Amino acid sequence: MKKLLTVVFCALALSFSLRGIDREHTLKVYNWADYIDENLITEFEKWYEEQTGEPVKIIYQLFDINEIMLSKIELGHEDFDVVCPSEYIIERMLRSDLLLPIDRDFGSTPDYIVNMAPYMRGIFDRIDGYGKNANDYSVAYMWGTVGILYNTKYVTREEASSWNCLKDPKFAGKLFVKDAFRDVYTSLIVALNRDRIEAGEVTVDELCRDASDESIAQVEAFLNEFKDNVSGWEADFGKERMTQEKAWMNLTWSGDAQWAIEEAAKVGVELDFVVPEEGSIVWFDGWVIPKYAKNVKAARYFINFMCKPENALRNMDEIGYVSAIGGEDILAAVEDPELYAPESATYFFGPEATAVCINPIMYPSDEVVARCGMMHDSGERTEALLAMWSRVKGDSANALTWVVIVVAIVVVAVVAVVVRSGKKNKRRHRRH
Q1: pTM over cut 0.85
Q2: For a surface tag, which of 5, 106, 219, 344 has the fewest beta carbons within 10 Å of its beta carbon?
């Protein structure tokens, strides 16, 4: 109770302090924790004044869950100028008319958004915005895949290359699964229908939009086949367990996998990551300007600034995820013939990139990406997906209770606003 009162007091103090700000020269940025090189925040303020002749100060605030961010804008009409939601939330915001189009006329300042990789522009075209093209309302920021992180001492690459390895009884108690129902469901609905995809009966994109009772039952049956092997459903601790060899496999995001591989190597543990051959998904986050933004000009300049290749590289180095920015500068910075074998990554770096030596975990090959779909907003079917996830995990609370808990968290979070948190925990990126 004492801690809660402290949080409320701090939030109220912040609220009163914000009432007197010069909103015309203030930029309110709302982003995930540890998801930017924070030095770029103050550097943008200087750069913006150089480009426009106008001063600006950034108020930088953090969120941990997409739905909390969305509720503040949807219900509270919060005046954030720039926000970084995930793909399905961008889709939901477009459908709900909560986004402003991004004007890319920057006068004498170059348009750095053109540096976006062709693949990212193409995948944003597939966001279902009810007739609105997401490329007009959002700009991709970071992205990755969903797959299996595994310990090479106990699991072969051949085993990890199929989702069926999760069912092998020899891995009982040695498996962690990311507690992210959308990511897991969409990855598995693609994988479980690989034969139908290859037969031309259904497309990957159609499956990624399918949350029917039949498809939910199909995924639930598969999850039930290996749930007894699961040692934990984790939001953030799976990668640490892998580095400690307390687990041998982790169904996770590529960004977490890369972090775990690097950390494990320091203590002599060899980990690797693979996107199973049956298929999976890519995930991504992007910058948007919400409907209630007060400083739209500074917001679009901020987005443009983040698309400069040198800034994209700095953000990648700081947080460990992969920038959506492509081009020769990025490729030159990430290529390393001594570490990586040549592979084709034409989807990201263009038709000349048929044999580039880049990290295959961060930049999967053309072949891997071709078998991956993307998540969509499940809309009114979300409760059914949550109910399935709850049954599989054996939660004591049913889906309705879970929703009530989330609503309670949202109410508290609306009060508890964190400004420029100094605590660092890299790659602690909770998409859901």
Answers
A1: yes
A2: 5
- Are 147 and 275 in contact by the 8 Å Cβ rule? The answer is yes
Tell whether 215 is covered by a domain: yes
User: How far, in Å, are 66, 80, 153 from residue 83 at the CA level?
Assistant: 10, 7, 42
Integer Cα distance of 322 and 117 in angstroms: 12
**Residues 250 and 384 both lie in one domain:** yes
- pLDDT tens per residue across span 329-383: 999 999 999 999 999 999 999 999 999 999 999 999 999 999 999 999 999 999 9
The answer to whether residue 353 is domain-embedded is no
Residue 66 and residue 92 in contact, taking contact as beta carbons nearer than 8 Å: no
Q: Give the torsion sign (CA, 160, 210, 127, 382).
A: negative
Asked whether the beta carbons of 82 and 299 are under 8 A apart, the reply is yes
In a domain? residue 362: no
pLDDT of residue 131: 93
Domain that holds residue 107: 2-143+284-335+404-419
Query: For 30-74, how does the pLDDT look when each residue is reduced to its tens digit (9 = 90+)?
Result: 999 999 999 999 999 999 999 999 999 999 999 999 999 999 999
Asked whether residue 7 falls in the same domain as residue 129, the answer is yes
Residue at 432 is within a domain: no
Q: What is the CATH number of the domain that holds 212?
A: 3.40.190.10
Residues sharing a CB contact under 8 Å with residue 370, sequence separation 6 or more, in sequence order: none
